[in-house]
Design a protein that fits this description.
Layout lengths: L25 H5 L2 E7 L4 E6 L7 E5 L2 E5 L6 E5 L6 E6 L5 E6 L3 E6 L5 E6 L5 E6 L5 E6 L4 E5 L5 E5 L6 E7 L2 E9 L3 E6 L4 E7 L6 E4 L5 E6 L2 E6 L5 E6 L6 E6 L5 E6 L3 E6 L5 E6 L4 E6 L5 E6 L3 E6 L4 H4 L4 H10 L7 H7 L7 H4 L25 H7 L3 H10 L3 H14 L2 H5 L4 H14 L6 H15 L7 H39 L1
Antiparallel strand pairs: 1-28, 2-3, 3-4, 4-5, 6-7, 7-8, 8-9, 10-11, 11-12, 12-13, 14-15, 15-16, 16-17, 18-19, 19-20, 20-21, 22-23, 23-24, 24-25, 26-27, 27-28
Protein name: U3 small nucleolar RNA-associated protein 15 C-terminal domain-containing protein
Main location: nucleus
Subcellular location: Nucleus, Nucleolus
């Protein structure tokens, strides 16, 4: 029997700061609690969360990749098809496939449902210590100790390109949230390089000063972070790849770092066994988490709630910024209730306790107790009310694979959050372009209206840009033939230009403020 169709999870609409306000308060980090822990036999070199709920953890340790439940810390399955040490597990964006490298110079793609090896890529002359999917899920990127990064086509296993600018072992990679063609590579030659994969040109070379163990590109694609040695450095591409800040708060080498989905909060981990959290707007420390061993890898779940750390002693710990009540209370509710019931015995309250229990199930008094009788916890079993989830119109269309109707119905709600959720689902299914084909002029005009009103909102910019690109791919030949559509496209172009100009003005203001502050400090 197939699983029931799950309706889309639409994020609550609100200002950009609303979902991340908690991350900017120190009280949040004081309430972080341990929710899962699992011990492996070898050091945990890499950890990563599944991009889909319930956000299980993949950890590379020894000759296998272990999949660990983020709720109870139990081992879900083990991927042990490696003849050498396994490294760097990475999920496909839909969470169904996983890639991992090994010290033999290869990389494997696993089907998480059957644990079967679907693809195996060979071509490196050294251990593959970094492997991950591209943001569109169609390519696999592998970085090796042979100083080369290779891009492979997932469908055909064909080698697409090689990046050979590094002069030492490649240790880390990152893709840009703003473009699937922008890629960043870090290596032990103390440099991180930003590439355009369409031309394999190196756009920027960032000199970190220490071996680069981890790299990040923040949402928007304008800033990057390099991690290695005792320092964490933040770079700005809009100012020509200039370093804008340096963080050096760890006592030992920093090994890994993660940023939240909005790029407002950065968490870094190091060999000192401490995770430190900084606000990327003010670069002020927000909190810390202490662990029992050296941390080799750090990951954050897609919802920004759970953090996983892989340690040198083989431990994987998952901590959450939201601890449920069942983890807070160490005494079960049923035990506490029995203790309260026992208090009266031996002091003359036995008869009263027996009378409070009510008639015995199955007796005549039990069936004649009346309609006002309430069920008791220990004598009656209360069935839960399993109500079928109510599906919205766009959910029903997605269930029937009527993708074009789903877009129209999402636009009809006039909620950008619903439109973004439907676009994300169509991107995951790989049918966004086909879903846009065949729309009437009025429908296309409504879709462009949503883009025009929300393209400047950072929470929606990325997905709306992908939606606009898909529209131009489908209807590019029709441009200039419809006045209403041309006006909407012109308004979108004007909005994008205003946003770019305002960003440049703010950067100039920031530069002037920094000059004033530096001169006053000297």
């Amino acid at each position: 029997m197939g699983e029931a169709f799950a309706p889309l999870l639409v994020p609550r609409p609100g200002s950009l700061s609303t979902p991340f306000r908690l991350h900017q308060e120190a009280s949040l980090w004081s309430s972080v609690g341990l929710v899962a822990s699992h011990h492996l036999l070898s050091p945990v070199t890499h950890v990563t969360f599944s991009p889909v709920a319930p956000y299980d953890v993949a950890a590379s340790s020894g000759f296998s990749v272990e999949l660990i439940g983020s709720r109870a810390g139990n081992r879900l399955r083990s991927l042990a098809r490696f003849r050498d040490t396994a490294y760097s597990p990475g999920y496909k964006p839909d969470g169904k496939l996983l890639v991992a490298g090994d010290s033999g110079g290869g990389a494997r793609v696993f089907d998480l449902g059957s644990r079967a090896v679907l693809r195996e890529f060979k071509g490196h002359k050294g251990p593959v210590r970094s492997a991950m999917f591209s943001s569109d899920g169609r390519r696999v990127m592998t970085g090796s100790d042979d100083s080369v990064v290779k891009a492979w086509d997932l469908a055909t296993s064909r080698l697409l390109l090689s990046l050979k600018d590094a002069n030492d072992y490649v240790r880390c990679q990152a893709h840009s949230p703003a473009s699937q063609h922008v890629w960043m590579v870090g290596s032990l030659d103390r440099k991180a390089r930003l590439y355009d994969l369409r031309s394999t040109n190196c756009l920027f070379t960032l000199d970190h000063g220490y071996q680069v163990d981890d790299v990040l590109i923040l949402p928007g694609g304008a800033r990057a972070i390099t991690i290695g040695g005792p320092e964490v450095k933040i770079w700005d591409f809009f100012s020509g790849g200039k370093m804008i800040h340096r963080l050096g708060s760890h006592a030992k080498a920093v090994t890994s770092g993660v940023a939240d989905v909005a790029g407002h909060c950065l968490a870094t981990a190091g060999l000192d066994g401490v995770v430190k959290v900084h606000d990327l707007d003010t670069f002020q420390a927000k909190g810390r988490m202490r662990f029992a061993s050296e941390i080799l890898s750090l990951a954050v779940s897609s919802d920004g709630v759970k953090y996983a750390a892989g340690m040198a002693d083989g431990t994987v710990e998952v901590r959450s910024t939201k601890t449920s009540s069942k983890h807070i209370s160490s005494v079960p509710q049923s035990t506490a209730r029995r203790q309260r019931e026992f208090e009266g015995y031996g002091r003359g309250f036995e008869k009263m306790r027996m009378e409070e229990k009510g008639p015995k199930p199955g007796s005549r008094r039990y069936f004649e107790r009346g309609t006002r009788a309430k069920p008791t916890e220990d004598q009656d079993f209360v069935m839960k009310d399993y109500r079928k989830a109510e599906l919205k119109d766009y959910d029903k269309s997605l269930q029937k694979f009527a993708h074009g109707d789903a877009i129209d119905q999402a636009v009809a709600t006039r909620s950008p959050s619903v439109v973004i959720s439907v676009v994300q689902e169509l991107l995951t299914r790989g049918v966004l372009t086909s879903a846009l084909a065949g729309h009437k002029q009025s429908s296309l005009d409504s879709i462009l209206g949503v883009i025009q009103r929300n393209i400047r909102k950072p929470l929606y910019t990325n997905r709306l840009a992908q939606l606009l690109n898909a529209i131009l791919d489908v209807y590019g030949a029709e441009l200039g033939k419809n006045i209403a559509v041309d006006r909407k496209l012109g308004a979108i172009l004007s909005a994008v230009r205003r946003e770019v100009n305002e960003c440049h003005d703010l950067m100039q203001l920031q530069g002037a403020a920094e000059a004033i502050l530096s001169s006053s400090g000297s």
